[in-house]
Amino acid sequence: MTLSARHWTINKKLAALVGSLGFLALIAANPYKGSRLELNGRELSEIVQKEVDHVSAEELAGWIIQGKSDYRLVDLRNEKDFAEYHIPTAENLAITSLQEGSLARNDKIVLYSDGGIHSAQAWFLLKSNQFKGVYILSGGLDEWKDKILFPRLNDNASPTEIAAFEKAKLVSKFFGGIPQVGGNVASGIPKLAMPKLESPGAGQPKAGPAKKKKEGC
Amino acid sequence: MSSAEKAILLDNVGARVAANVRREAQPYWNPYLAGLGLGLVLLAAFVIMGRGLGASGAFASVLSVGVNAVAPQHAVSNSFYSEYLGDGTQSPLKDWLVFEVLGAVVGGFISGILAGRVRKTIEKGPRITTAGRFAYAFAGGMIMAFGAKLARGCTSGQALTGGALLGLGSWSFMLAVFAGAYAVAYFVRRQWT
Amino acid sequence: MNAPLFKFGMFGDEVSLIVAFVIGIGFGFFLERAGFGSARKLCAQFYFTDLAVFKVMFTAIITAMVGLFWLSWIGFVDLSLVYVSPTFILPQTIGGLILGAGFVIGGYCPGTSCVAASTGKIDALVYIAGIFAGTFLFGELFPFLSGFYNSTPMGQVTIPQFFNLSYGLVVFLVVMMAIGGFAGTGWVEQKFSKLAKETMP
Questions:
Q1: Chain B residue with minimal CA distance to A212?
Q2: What is the ipTM of this complex?
Q3: A94 falls in which pLDDT band (50, 70, 90)?
Q4: Which residues of A touch C16 (CB under 8 A)?
Q5: Among residues A50, A181, B174, C16, which is most buried (max CB within 10 A)?
Q6: Do A136 and A53 contact (CB within 8 A), yes or no?
Q7: Phi–psi pair at C49, nearest 5 degrees
Q8: CB nearest A105 (choices: C8, C66, C75)
Q9: Chain B interface, Cβ < 8 Å to A
Q10: DSSP one-letter code for A74
Q11: Which of A114-118, C60-64, C127-131 has the lowest mean pLDDT?
Q12: CB distance B45 to C23 below 8 Å
């Protein structure tokens, strides 16, 4: 058998090519799985300063009431807390599994945790991994409870505040909260577990009875 | 150009086109080259879409639309059809697989035309009648489709795509397909040989 | 990491349908080039007279597999974003057996039946009618089948993961197995060449 490749048929050449690539793969063993992050420090710092990545509790409440389905609300807390209460339409994702694939880079993602630390850290991780539309719920769940579920009307409220409170009462009722009237709110108000709008951890919150089979074959 | 010259030109062009369609069926390509082409198409799907090919899902989508048109209550309450119908915000036919299969029809036609292989035929072996062939074709399609839905895919989706991705279930599926086909081939040899 | 392009937001759902159509054209084109618009050629595989199905299928698999390995190795493709369909080992295997049987009885698989239909095969049209009937049967029986359909889930598991081997090793083994198989096809086809002469066009 001649060693000169010029005499080989096309089949032999193809076999040799793919065989070598396969052999090299053996040596390469494992491709570098994507956990390398690229940071654009300047861009990120500008976004942080302008606070364009914040979503207020009122805004989010509005989206939910309107039935918008163009966003994905991510609850970063643990399963137990999530099961006890979560903002309707939220999905429970651990910060370690954020980049695993259920979130798409062109999704509008709103992150929340109890306060703001985990959501800020998760924001940073996702933005560095080329996720485009990542937002933080300002104030997190604490703010949600404070402003949406249990809005408070102080004793010496101004007329504008009273008017705003009327609206807040309706929103609160929608989410099963208790509007608070009167000076000081007792700190031990029990959380109200809302009737869940859809089962926790559902992939697409507004998918209705069945999620459209997207990537099957 | 005078009208006489135009007429001659059109005649020539027409003759060329007709000859192209009518011409002798060209031999098939080297299977390794065809496989290479197919593999590159699959790779393109991975790189561009992050998914592979498929076919059986498209038929299920179309069927679900049909069932929904005739008996919407039944379609929505059946978890198989409803999976293909989605939540109603957009037509189930605006589906990646449906468009891909339509493309495959076009692609096959283009290749056939270029090779002079488009003609009305009935593929069958020498020992069986047309009616017999049709009966087998229908039955085979039914059985195949049933197996495809049970396996969550067909040769394009599970075997090719899943095979390239080294999916465990896909490889098991692929081996089972060959096993099943070889096992039954003996019993239908009268159709093909 | 820039790929898969769609999952990095390069284009939206509408454009992805156009992408689907174009990819489909390539798919159908090469299937027909290989001769898979012909049920006789397809089924010849199962009588050992023409092993094109094996050759084309496995060449395609190793091409895409090796290509994906290297594109992810250089950091272009983010492998975790390429959809691997979840394994349900029992229904997939049983389904495969049934599909294989239907394949050799009917003469096509779904993709090739479309290519055959578009190049004029009437039996392919009948086959496609059968596909709808079979899918309908499955859909109607689904409430009874869903238990079995969802049994033995193993998640999105790949062969390297399951056997705890490196990805590159499995790629290498599959390539070697395929090339070995290809080398053997000449011998097999020759053994059955008498049958081939009688039955193939």
A1: B86
A2: 0.94
A3: confident
A4: none
A5: B174
A6: yes
A7: -85, -25
A8: C8
A9: 30, 32-33, 36, 51-57, 76, 79, 82-89, 92, 96-97, 152-154, 156-158, 161
A10: E
A11: A114-118
A12: yes
A119: helix, coil or strand?
helix
CB neighbours of A52 closer than 8 A, spacing ≥ 6? Answer: none
Mind spelling out the 3-state secondary structure of chain C? CCECCHHHCCCCHHHHHHHHHHHHHHHHHHHHHCCCCCHHHHHHHHHCCCCHHHHHHHHHHHHHHHHHHHHHHCCCECHHHCCCCCEEHHHHHHHHHHHHHHHHHHCCCHHHHHHHHHCCEHHHHHHHHHHHHHHHHHHHHHHHHHHHHCCCEEECCEHHHHHCCCHHHHHHHHHHHHHHHHHHHHHHHHHCHHHHHHHCC
Residue A175 or C88, more confident: C88
At A181, phi and psi to the nearest 5?
A: -110, 135
> Identity (one letter) of the amino acid at C189?
E
**What is the 3 state secondary structure string of chain B?**
CCHHHHHHHHHHHHHHHHHHHHCCCCCCCCHHHHHHHHHHHHHHHHHHHCCCCCCHHHHHHHHHHHHHHHCHHHHHHCHHHHHHHCCCCCCCCCCHHHHHHHHHHHHHHHHHHHCCCCCCECCCCCCCCHHHHHHHHHHHHHHHHHHHHHCCCCHHHHHHHHHHCCEHHHHHHHHHHHHHHHHHHHHHHHHHC
Dig out the tokens for C176 from the structure: 């070697």
C-beta atoms of B182 and C25 within 8 A = no
C109/B148 Cα distance (integer angstroms): 9
Give CA–CA dist C80/B123, Å, rounded: 43
| Alpha-carbon gap, residue B52 to B100, rounded angstroms | 11
pLDDT single digits (tens) C90-130: 999 999 999 999 999 999 999 999 999 999 999 999 999 99
Tell the burial category of C97 from Cβ atoms under 10 Å away from its Cβ (0-12, 13-18, 19+).
buried
- Name the residue facing A210 among B30, B86, B154 (closest C-beta): B86
Which residues have CB under 8 Å from C198's CB, separation 6+?
B126, B193
Q: Indicate the residue of A208, A213, A216 with minimum beta-carbon distance to B88.
A: A208
Contact yes or no for C25 and B106 at CB 8 A: yes
Does C164 touch chain A if contact means CB atoms closer than 8 Å? no
| In chain B, residues 16-35 whose CB comes closer than 8 Å to chain C | 28-29, 31-35
pLDDT digits (tens, 9 = 90+) for B159-189: 999 999 999 999 999 999 999 999 999 999 8
